[in-house]
Specification:
The chain has 26 helices and 3 strands. With 531 residues, it is mainly alpha-helical. The chain binds zinc ion.
Length: 531
């Protein structure tokens, strides 16, 4: 802590540096002080913790530091990984995340960003490139954490093409948080080492696309219903027959298998059935809480580069705009042509055409019966929500079916998210799951209480008790076989196996072992091999 009363000098950003890196360099610059002293200096006494991936409390940042480093908004957009999560999110979610980073806690943001229920995990280990470290030492006299290396999906260095290494510190299982800079002793290989040229090319392509997606996210967001249309068109170009769909599934699974050995891609679909499931999910309905890597994997396979997807997306928008102008249908379908004109140009007192042509009415009603959302219908037919609501009111049978279908879709979506959260946190109590997905809990509590209660009853209570519905033995066995599998594939020069290495390589093992009364076999095995 600064006890001398002197003003602290703050360092300046280095190129492509993340916020945690600058704070860590500041910590080293200040010399012999504790982690907590630096935390207090930077964020005041109220700040109790810090996270390198999603730094919060930015509103409390030291005023002199803000003068040197920029506003919290600038820090969020230019020096944290957050913007990579923005392109496929609604503006409300983006604002909620920014607000959360300013405040004392992230709340339910991680869940909304797809970090809790997605297949990519919520851990973002610090990453570094050996060649960048050497270059930075010689140019700047220090190593630092490059922001582009930290982005989810970046596996190889965008400059050198080398596989990145990941930090063994500041992990879920680390005892304490530390301000550190990249240094060889705290770095370990990330995933499987490879020199295969085509694998490295694939990894480099997805790494570059991740960086491009991050840059895009600083200022723009996609319209999800249009994203789905672009995907559908790209797939229809591959063929629409059953044979073509199966072939596409096989090729996508093959692509995923190249990425699969590298976290965070370890849960990608590597067989036909799962690949087809993944594709059909992404080409069905736009989902709000989807991890950006899910889109990026599909985009990288379909288009090769994010830029080519962007071209297709912009082309679709232009085409739809031209259609709107050329196609009088959309104009007739508007509540009134007048509404398309600026208010001042509207003819006051002119009769409003109330009737929508019958064939178009039918099309809208059909779309309502065929799983389209109101938002999709408004955008596809260029009509307002009021028009859709009026049509529904005039057609009570359709309205009833639409409400039922929407309710069932929503029910399915909420149940799926709840179950996925439970699967990802196998030892979490109902209360923990509720805190991870508060919106989902609230919706299910209001609308699907008996199902919710049947699910929470099967979860650990958070206190001691019997959870007969959970097959703890099977989970224990599965962890043991994963650990054994790891040992047989590990390189023979591994002199000593450390627990943290195993935690790093077996997803969910660390969080599961926090349940002290469970997993006796996995515990015993861990103790034996790390003796
Ligand atoms: Zn590099």
């Amino acid at each position: 802590m600064n006890l001398t009363g002197k003003k602290t000098a703050f360092l300046n950003w280095l190129p492509d540096e993340c916020f945690y890196s600058l704070c860590s360099r500041q910590h080293c610059f200040l010399g012999d002080q504790s982690t907590d002293d630096t935390l207090r200096l930077l964020f005041g006494d109220l700040a109790k913790s810090f996270a390198h991936d999603f730094p919060h409390n930015l509103k409390l940042l030291n005023k002199d530091a803000m003068l040197a480093w920029g506003s919290p908004e600038k820090i969020i957009c230019e020096h944290t990984i957050s913007p990579i999560f923005f392109p496929f999110q609604s503006s409300e979610h983006v604002q909620a995340l920014k607000d959360a980073l300013l405040g004392p806690r992230l709340g339910s943001c991680k869940y909304k960003l797809g970090l809790v229920t997605g297949r990519f995990g919520g851990a973002h280990p610090l990453k570094a490139c050996a060649k960048c470290m050497t270059a930075d030492r010689s140019v700047y006299g220090t190593t630092y954490w490059h922001l582009s290396h930290q982005l989810p999906g970046v596996i190889t260095c965008p400059i050198h093409g080398l596989l990145l290494m990941e930090s063994t510190e500041n992990r879920q299982w680390s005892r304490s948080f530390r301000w550190i800079l990249p240094d060889e002793p705290v770095l370990a290989e990330m995933g499987k080492a490879t020199t295969d040229r085509s694998t490295l090319t694939t990894l480099q392509a997805i790494s570059n696309s991740s960086v491009a997606l991050y840059r895009l996210g600083i200022n723009s967001q996609f319209d999800l219903s249009k994203v789905v249309q672009v995907y559908k068109e790209a797939f229809s170009n591959l063929g629409t027959s059953k044979k073509a769909c199966v072939a596409a599934g096989d090729r996508f699974a093959e692509y995923c298998s190249v990425l699969e050995p590298f976290p965070p891609f370890s849960a990608l679909p590597c067989d036909r059935q799962h690949a087809i499931g993944f594709i059909s999910q992404m080409t069905r309905k736009p989902r709000g809480y989807c991890h950006p890597l899910k889109h990026l994997v599909l985009i990288s396979w379909l288009f090769g580069r994010l830029e080519l997807f962007l071209d297709a997306y912009q082309h679709l928008i232009k085409r739809q705009e031209i259609q709107k102008v050329r196609n009088p249908k959309s104009l007739r379908l508007s509540q009134t042509i007048d509404e398309l004109l600026p208010k001042a140009d509207r003819k006051l007192g002119a009769p409003r055409p109330k009737k929508i042509f019958n064939d178009l009415k039918k099309e809208v009603l059909n779309a309502l019966l065929n799983d389209s959302t109101k938002k999709e219908i408004c955008s596809n037919f260029n009509i307002s929500t009021c028009t859709v609501n009026r049509l529904l009111r005039l057609n009570p049978d359709v309205e009833k079916t639409f409400i039922n279908k929407s309710y069932l879709n929503k029910l399915e979506e909420k149940r799926t998210i709840w179950s996925a959260t439970v699967r990802n946190y196998p030892s979490a109590s109902a209360k923990t799951i509720k805190n991870l997905a508060p919106d989902i809990y609230a919706w299910l509590y209001r609308n699907d209480r008996s199902w919710l209660f049947s699910q929470t009853a099967a979860l650990p209570s958070g206190r001691s008790g019997n959870h007969v519905t959970i097959d703890w033995d099977a989970r224990d066995e599965s962890f043991c076989s994963l650990i054994n599998q790891l040992l047989t594939t590990a390189s023979s020069d591994l002199k000593k196996v450390r627990k943290c290495d195993i935690y790093q390589l077996v997803p969910n093992l660390f969080s599961s072992l926090e349940k002290r009364s469970r997993y006796p076999k996995a515990r015993k095995l861990l103790t034996e091999i790390t003796k």
